[in-house]
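RETRY 2/3 - previous attempt timed out on the joint model. Re-submitting the same 572-residue input unchanged.
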Amino acid sequence: MTTAETTSDSTPETPARDFIHQAVADDLASGRFQPPIVTRFPPEPNAYLHIGHAKAVGVSYRIAKEFGGRFHLRFDDTNPAKEEQEYIDAIKEDLAWLGIEWGEHEYYASDYFDQLYEWAVKLIEAGKAYVDDQTGDEIRTGRGTLTTPGTNSPFRDRPVEESLDLFNRMKAGEFPNGSRVLRAKIDMASPNISLRDPVMYRVLHEAHPRTGDAWCIYPLYDFAHGQSDSLENITHSLCSMEFESHRPLYEWFIKELGIFPSRQIEFARGNITYTFTSKRRMAELIEKGHVTGFDDPRMPTLRGLRRRGFLPGSLMRFWAEAGVAKRDNNIEFAKLESILRDDLNKIAPRRMAVLDPLKVVITNYPADQVEPMDGINNPEDPDAGTRPVPFSGELYIEREDFMEDAPKKFFRLAPGKEVRLRSAYWVKCEEVIKDDSGNITELRCTYDPETRGGSNPPDGRKVKGTLHWVSANHAVDAEVRLYEHLFTAEDPTTPPKGSEDWLDNLNPDSLKVITGAKLEPALADTEPGKPVQFERMGYYCKDLVDSTPDKLVFNRTITLKDTWAKVQKKGG
RNA sequence: AGGCCCGUAGUGUAAUGGUAACACCCUAGUUUUUGGUACUAGUAUUCAAGGUUCGAAUCCUUGCGGGCCUGCCA
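RETRY 2/3 succeeded.
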């Protein structure tokens, strides 16, 4: 290759490059940074990760991967009043589930407390920071407002030695919480409020999950984050838009300290219809008993999604396809569903399960005969093979698959109509049995022995419907939990008209528990959490928490697309 | 409002001064032993007004709309 001039766009499908990719590429091209590109995900260990975090990790992770760089996990543990070891463990677990690999690059802002303290001293000595004795209220008042400049603290110009001494004594534990802070000396009149002498350190007599009681002063985010990035040689520190106004401060500390110039780039968080990510709201749902906990399958937490049966790869793919930009967004949940179904379709083994059983007796089937039919495990994957599914003269079919007075577009079972039982035989409904109050209790059908395996009969008859079924005597009982959106509103956090409570958006049908479901026997052996498709019904998984061999519990991850439901809806 | 950021089909994201595109949603059809899957086709887009330019989604101005910032949270 001598020239690249002739490239006729030989890579037409180069993935669309978001503005972050471009910035990184530009930085490499301009020499602003040398390889390797290093990114990080910096969670505060004060909560469980949710679906929004999956976007944040994904953005940084992909940049590192695609530029052949490095990815760090760093816990932003600068506020021991809120943070706990439990969350550190949970976050690592959830990240691993997502498929994120950080190797030995696991860091903690608290690892840098000594260095941070040293740098704070350096800034005091340089006259760039001072100890402020004002109360919290005084500081707030002095900061001014959005439209009026702040005023200098009376302690702003105190001698360097005095600040040094006070800061030292803050560290030594001589002062109570809230009595003094260390502030950067920048500009109380700046239109950017985060530059109005931001607080760097506060007194906090609180044990830290990692440093114990070694410290009673802790750095604030602004004095810890950029420096931590710098210490780890993070080239691109990617964060959400609300930190944009902090960037000048991020850069100010780096410049004053003369340390590695990490670059902060902000992007918009990802919102999704019908869901939310506020920790406060999650807690409220739990407190009020609307969900069972942070791992409730309806929760937007990664643990909830996992329990529900979502694939980690689908989550990552969803965010990758959703893209990254700076504008506010509200992605349709349907986009996620589409990706989930697509992934599930390829890997989920097919099984048959009848959720609302209606008994069917095959009157011409030899009594006591049982045949193992070959059930195709996955039509998308020939290598998945088949499994034996026991067929007998007494079956269950889905109650909604029978209609006594069926409209023309109803392809399922009706009096005198014939359908295919998947992988088994064609059956024809001959008689409808009802109880005294007119409820249908049983169907009497005949089968055609020439349709074994569900194949077309020699006479060329056609049938439009194929039904799932289970053999009554071989069926395994299970509880099935049918989940829907937790909320009926696209934006659940906005109360509905005439209400002031967002909880009025709750979907009363977000969970429907079915206790008498009949499953084909193979389902008893599926691994908890692993996806299966209940044919014609949807994707399910055995519940990771509540399912036991004695009492099977399955969660519905998501339904199949249901065009029949649409037809019905249209028909009135 | 003081500052900053952002406005592209219904939704999300591309187009880097040169034919506005991709995915999802929606509609119609084909195939089908899942009313699934797959496939085909279709509907629909640059916030507005000026300006610069041979040419503007892109650059400039103004307006309109949305978001963020006044923790000793992150």
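The first helix of chain A runs from residue 19 to 30. Closing ticket.
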